[in-house]
Specification:
This protein has a single domain (5-100), classed as Ankyrin repeat-containing domain (Serine Threonine Protein Phosphatase 5, Tetratricopeptide repeat, Alpha Horseshoe), CATH 1.25.40.20. The N and C termini lie far apart (43 Å). Helix 3 packs antiparallel against helix 4. The protein has 6 helices and 2 strands; from the N terminus they run H-H-H-H-E-E-H-H. The chain has 117 residues and is mainly alpha-helical. The longest helix is centred in the last third of the chain and has 13 residues, at 88-100. A two-stranded antiparallel sheet has the order 1-2.
Length: 117
């Protein structure tokens, strides 16, 4: 049976709210999720973590070499973080993390809007 990586990683993100960061790290490490895996819609694990403003998982992925400047169809990781349905504090922490890792706040989406608009 083939593992659907996107569903698995989404489950890890949900699971991360109920367990320790160390346990999430071990799940990602033990299941050998590649930092640049391509999930549904071409999203990377970092894009998935940013889309739910999961600061701890985003930091883990960035520390392991994930690309904070990743974009697909003019939609960036920073845009995903800015539009996350999460607490303002989590969104802010995730956005600050991405900016500290060289995410470009000046890139525009296909509607010519920057992440902060």
């Amino acid at each position: 049976m083939e593992l659907d990586c996107h569903k698995f990683f989404r489950a890890v993100l949900v699971f991360s709210r109920a367990v320790s960061f160390k346990e999430v790290f071990l799940i990602i490490h033990n299941h050998c999720i590649s930092i640049e895996s391509s999930f549904q819609f071409g999203w990377t694990p970092l894009m998935c973590a940013a889309s739910v403003a999961d600061f701890a998982v985003a930091r883990l992925l960035l520390d392991r070499g994930a690309n904070a400047r990743f974009e697909i169809d003019k939609y960036t990781v920073l845009m995903a973080a800015c539009t996350a349905h999460a607490s303002e504090e989590n969104v802010l922490k995730t956005v600050e993390l991405l900016l500290s890792r060289n995410a470009d706040p000046n890139l525009t989406c296909r509607y010519q809007k920057t992440p902060c608009l």
